[in-house]
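Aim 2 progress update. The chain analyzed this quarter is reproduced below.
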Amino acid sequence: MTSRFLPRLAPDLDVLQRLDGAQILVTGGTGSFGQAFIRRIHEIAKPARTVIYSRDELKQYEMEQSFPRETVGRLRFFIGDVRDLPRLEMAMRDIDYVIHTAALKQVPAAEYNPFECVHTNVLGAENVVQAAIRNRVKRVIALSTDKASNPINLYGASKLASDKIFTAANHLSGSTKVRFSVVRYGNVIGSRGSVVPLFRRLIAAGADSLPITDPRMTRFWITLREGVDFVLSCLPMMRGGEIFVPKIPSMRITDLATTMAPGLGHRVVGIRPGEKLHETMVTEGDARHTVEMEDRYVIEPSFAWWDRAAFEGSLGTRVPEDFRYASDDNPDWLTPDRLKDLLAEGV
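Predicted structure tokens:
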């Protein structure tokens, strides 16, 4: 199945060849993305071992029960926290690929508990880097967020710091040849903590209105499957240090609410601490290092050793210096019909 928004993102033969027989570790593996990623790779390939690294044993148990027996035999549920470097090092022994998804992600919670957010998102990122280098992992992809671009909240700032840590980690790998890259995208439709499940619960409960933070608010949207396929498509492409940004549609929060509940009114509740009206994934400052491809943007690192021709020429073109990729001036908008199709598919 190819992506509805990103039709070129079905994993190619190179990805399949890399994952067959590979040993993979996913931090935060019991989260929405982690579970979708693990299901997907076991649909398209036969990894020798997939390690689910997370700190909630109940979620691990429930996840194990949800997989078929033949898949469970290749899964390893490893209780641990990214704050714990020795435990990470133990979990990464003989691992080929790491997908780092573990993070504290709730904006208001991060504003209220800043040190907790920093310990997980920043120090945890450094621990992942150190453990990957010491275990000579081949490739590491860290998941980021549009909130890391020009951040105004602590969550975004912590993820920006994490992005910088993973980008700079390519200087540290030395003879191990470990490569680190970042994937940055927007809101995931239907993921835990997103507005879609909230609206669904309120509609099912018979609410007389839906809460809207601000009628002007826009967001980038992507489905879990699209996010998973995008990460998989970046694995063979990465050279180390890039930030990969998918071309995905935007939608106004009011249009989302109206599409999900056409007859329901809206109640403006105000923007929460740390929220933006619009999100940006490529800033004007990033533009001079950014290459546009058919289905993505690649923010290249400013390394002396970086091959500037890696994503240019036949693959892509450099964007103008004043380029900006933001949710309010995105050329691609998620229409109500497209959203209805996605909701009908159960995302």
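The chain is about 35% helix and 20% strand. The chain has a mean pLDDT of 90. These observations will guide the mutagenesis experiments scheduled for the next reporting period.
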